[in-house]
Amino acid sequence: MATNESSGPANVDISKINVGQGEGYDKKCIFCKVANNEMGTELLHVDEEVSCFRDIKPGAPHHYLVVPTRHVGNCKSLSKEHVSLVEKMVEIGMEILQKNSVLDLSDVRFGFHWPPFCSVSHLHLHVLAPASQMGFMSRLFYRPNSYWFVTADQLIQQLNSKGETN
Ligand SMILES: [Zn+2]
Ligand SMILES: [Zn+2]
């Protein structure tokens, strides 16, 4: 007997995971395909949690994208429990820079485009270096404290405070 439950204000399900090729894979998502090695894109790093590859439109001499290997939506859909994931993404970004001989880790830009300014809904951390060599348009496009780009530090702060107030 199928009774119609009147669904109360349940917890918001942030992970609308499409089950395509396993959990956390969205077959319509380009970054899912890249992380799943279907696009012929060179993966500079891949593990269960995080993958990294080059941005096809580099905004600086070094421009990498670090993404969760599973589809977790954009930065607006994150909650406090994703802080460790974001921190891991930053960590891998730092590692990739070092592997590619970027020595000055203070002259870098790490951040996320804020919806609706994301072209891809799959969470992706932009890692750019050296920040001082970014062109005019890139400075604008990846501008910290703008309403379209949030730095990794800011996002982590936001996520942490989310948990405390709610
Ligand atoms: Zn995806
Ligand atoms: Zn972006």
Characterize this entry briefly.
It catalyses: adenosine 5'-phosphoramidate + H2O = NH4(+) + AMP. Pfam families: DcpS_C. By secondary structure, the protein is an alpha+beta fold.
Describe this entry's structure for a reader.
It catalyses: adenosine 5'-phosphoramidate + H2O = NH4(+) + AMP. This is Adenosine 5'-monophosphoramidase HINT3. One of its GO terms (molecular function) is hydrolase activity. There is one protein chain. The protein is α+β, with helices and mostly antiparallel strands. It has a single domain, classed as HIT family, subunit A. It has a six-stranded antiparallel beta sheet. Helix 2 runs antiparallel to helix 4. It starts with 29 loop residues before the first helix and ends with a helix. The N terminus is likely disordered. Bound molecules: zinc ion (2 copies). One zinc ion (ZN) binds next to loops.
